[in-house]
Amino acid sequence: MGNPPPGLLRNPPPRFGLPAQLAALAVAKVFACYRRDRTKRPEFRPLGTVTYDRRVLRLLNLTVVSVSTLQGRLRVSLIAGGYQTNRLKGAVLGESKLLFHRDRNHWSFVFTVKSEPPPVSEPAGFLGVDMGVVNIAADSDGNLYSGGHVRGLRKRHLKLRRRLQAKGTRGARRLLSRRRRKERRFQRWVNHHISKQIVTAAQGTGRGIAVEDLTGIRSRITARKKQRPVLSAWAFGQLRFFLTYKAEDAGVPLVAVDPRGTSRTCPGCGGEEARNRRSQAEFRCVRCGLSGHADLFAALNIQRRVVVSRPDCSEQRLADLQGKAAAL
Questions:
Q1: pLDDT tens across 141-176, in order?
Q2: What residue ranges in 171-258 does DSSP mark as E strands?
Q3: Distances in Å between the alpha carbon of 215 and those of 177, 235, 281, 314?
């Protein structure tokens, strides 16, 4: 028999000098990019994110990272904060990533920790959470999260972006890119802060969390041109994701409900009318006259929908919710 064609060699010679596991990780990264969007041809930057697993990266004494490279194994000193150190103690590492921060000109590791979540206990009740634009979140206990201060910053960022986009110079585009990164960091910090407060409140009272299912909300609603930048300025999906994983980590059950009609329904008499919502913040029922903050009433309606759907629902629980609505 003759020699097989070069393309059918069982053990072709290495082309890039990569160890076997690094070659497998490179193939997996390319596959993931094409699976996300097959219509685009991804381009990988020389200083792009590098993915590692437990075979090529090890954590030694929480102070040194041993990582496989083209020049062999390297040991790099690791500087971590107290929270990160506590999470890494005795944990099993999953996928890890090496990132280069161009604005700060330094490298950082992102570790994935594998841990078993605590068992989810049977909740004594539920904390309803409404997400919005003016107030990022409102709960059924009467708390509003990040209202005027965040809204003012968003308006300021929008004006700065428009001014930089109008210039169109190379320096303006560079500043615009830095501005986007700064806004994302601020948005992420606020969503982390709000989700932590909500999960802590639910965990401390033995309750679960009821949220709106806002999947595809931007494609379902219509808005005037002036309102579109405001509606798309905040990542509600990110806040929902933070709530989900923080609740799971704390053993708090999280339930998603249909958001339709929650902002127009009276939590006292149950009447649903578009005229109940007088303005963004004002709610006044046209049937029974109950009035209050619209976002807080929406959070109560979300809480009510979960309570009604449960088998242990009783008239007393519904009466308690009506009394809470009158007290807000």
A1: 989 987 666 777 777 877 888 888 888 888 888 888
A2: 208-212, 254-257
A3: 28, 12, 24, 31
Where are any strands of DSSP class E within 146-235?
A: 208-212
Nearest to 18 by CA among 9, 8, 28: 28
Q: For each of the domains in the chain, give its residue range(s) and CATH number, in order of start.
A: 20-114 (2.40.50), 126-154+192-327 (3.30.420)
Cβ–Cβ < 8 Å for 247, 253: yes
The enclosing H or E element of 198 equals helix 170-204
The candidate with the shortest Cα–Cα distance to 289, out of 271, 307, 306, is 271
Instruction: Judge contact between 190 and 150, C-beta under 8 A.
Output: yes
Task: Give pLDDT tens digits for 69-88.
Answer: 888 888 988 888 888 888 88
- This prediction's pTM: 0.70
61 burial class (0-12, 13-18, 19+ CB within 10 angstroms)?
exposed
